[in-house]
Amino acid sequence: MTNHEIKIAFDEYDSLKELPTADHDLCLEATEALKNSHSPYSKFRVGAALRLQSGKIIYGSNQENVAYPSGLCAERVALFYWGANHPDDPVVAMAVTAQTDEFMLTKPVTSCGSCLQVLAEVEKKQNKPIKILLFVEGGPIWVIKGIENQLPFLFFEERLITSS
Ligand SMILES: [Zn+2]
Fold it and tell me: What residues does the CMP/dCMP-type deaminase domain cover (predicted)?
């Protein structure tokens, strides 16, 4: 038996003001993005903003549906829009924030496994890691570099070796 340990790392900032200007501004864009959240069922509004290498900003927000599984998270709305419209302009950073009247949010809301798997695909496609900024109003900001610091056991096909 061999025991393995995997370390992941992220930075925590106390306030948006401590961030570099571009990241600070991207967080404000994520707050703008959540205004278009369609979340009448969960009442949990999520906004995502992508900064592309060209400086262009892409917005995403969670879009729910009365048929629950038909809805989609803010992160995937933004990432799929990027893939469909700007695939040659690499994603440099993604900021994600959330608001709800139902709960107190004191820590950043992290992405679901499906969004992380999609994020992994985007990093692979563009061959560049993406800086992730997670925050809620009045809480700390978590800055995470690259998918390996969020989903170390992500599915990737290089692990699949043909049996023949
Ligand atoms: Zn998700």
Answer: 21-164
